[in-house]
Amino acid sequence: MEAVAKLKNVPTSPRKMRLVADLIRGERVNKALNILKFEPKQGAARLEKLLLSAISNWQQGNQDVDLEDADLYVKSIYVDSGRILKRLRPAPQGRAHRIRKRSNHVTLILDSKAPVAEAEKNTKKKEKEDK
């Protein structure tokens, strides 16, 4: 089963956030958490909290499966552009330069490898046998 977590209106440019998101795409959850913990870039702390939220969401949907046995990995992560705040900065000779303060939206999807599917099948078989 997949678990989704979203982060909206992060006051960082999407380009800077994509640099951090590319580091954890396709990685196992434990390795991704270690990467984000020691990454000095600005968006790493926010993505670490998002990844922990996605893990929690997965646990809510799969209470009968142990987290260590699940073998979770980051299935996909993508960063979209959010709203842009437009400001003006004075420039020489009475002109003005536009400043664009960008923000982004991040979507993270976790999934488990094959053993979780087998564990779910085993629990379903046990439920049928109990009936």
Automatic annotation (TrEMBL):
Keyword field: Ribonucleoprotein, Ribosomal protein, RNA-binding, rRNA-binding
Record-linked InterPro entries: Ribosomal_uL22, Ribosomal_uL22_bac/chlpt-type, Ribosomal_uL22_bac/org-type, Ribosomal_uL22_sf
CDD domains, sorted: Ribosomal_L22
Keyword RNA-binding (UniProt):
yes
Q: What ranges does the record give for the region Disordered, renumbered to this chain?
A: 111-131
Q: Where is the composition biased (Basic and acidic residues)?
A: 118-131
Keyword Ribosomal protein listed? The answer is yes
Assigned GO CC terms: ribosome
Any one Pfam family here would be Ribosomal_L22
The family assignment reads: Belongs to the universal ribosomal protein uL22 family.
Q: What does this protein do?
A: The globular domain of the protein is located near the polypeptide exit tunnel on the outside of the subunit, while an extended beta-hairpin is found that lines the wall of the exit tunnel in the center of the 70S ribosome.
How it assembles, according to the record, is:
Part of the 50S ribosomal subunit.
Name of the protein in question: Large ribosomal subunit protein uL22
